[in-house]
Amino acid sequence: AQKVTQAQTEISVVEKEDVTLDCVYETRDTTYYLFWYKQPPSGELVFLIRRNSFDEQNEISGRYSWNFQKSTSSFNFTITASQVVDSAVYFCALLAGNTPLVFGKGTRLSVIA
Amino acid sequence: DTGVSQNPRHKITKRGQNVTFRCDPISEHNRLYWYRQTLGQGPEFLTYFQNEAQLEKSRLLSDRFSAERPKGSFSTLEIQRTEQGDSAMYLCASSLFSEKLFFGSGTQLSVL
Questions:
Q1: Coil, strand, or helix at residue A84?
Q2: From first to last of its 112 residues, what are the pLDDT tens digits of chain B?
Q3: Which residue of B has its CA nearest to A97?
Q4: Residue of B44, B103, B105 to mutate for A, most A C-beta atoms under 10 A
């Protein structure tokens, strides 16, 4: 069975601090995809990144970076120099085999000015 | 690309009533998904369609729930004899095969 664990329920940081959101996944499939979505207060899930299991290169997009480590089954997300607009719930998700996208429970990030 | 559209945004109903939600996916996407999200939880899969065929249904989808996607375009999700436990955000998403899912803003259902 596919499973995603986001151990951090809520995180609060002061603006301009860096913050890392943890994601640990479980799957027996060798081919899979990992995702991060952002859910702002408006409710719509916004796609941030998709990474396949064969590409372990870390990725950076502006203030966002992702660290994929197959050895620890983790796909962590770091926001550098956080801003108030980053306040949202962030979901990690796993797509593997023939099962639909499975989400973690999410991490609520509050960035305080 | 107008994105995934869901209607209504909010629905308040009395227990025992039937409700129907609509989802219009991104036009060229062949897959359409329904998820349910309750407070403090991640979205949970309900069902998905590839074109007009309903390919998978979750155990969460009781026999009071039915989804259709006539002609492989828009989809409807109907809940019959609503219960208070059905109160949740119902999210629709679409994708081109198993590429990234694009989500709508959801329909917030409150059953009184």
A1: helix
A2: 579 999 999 999 999 999 999 999 999 899 999 999 999 899 999 999 999 999 888 988 889 999 999 888 999 999 999 999 999 999 999 998 767 899 999 999 999 9
A3: B98
A4: B103
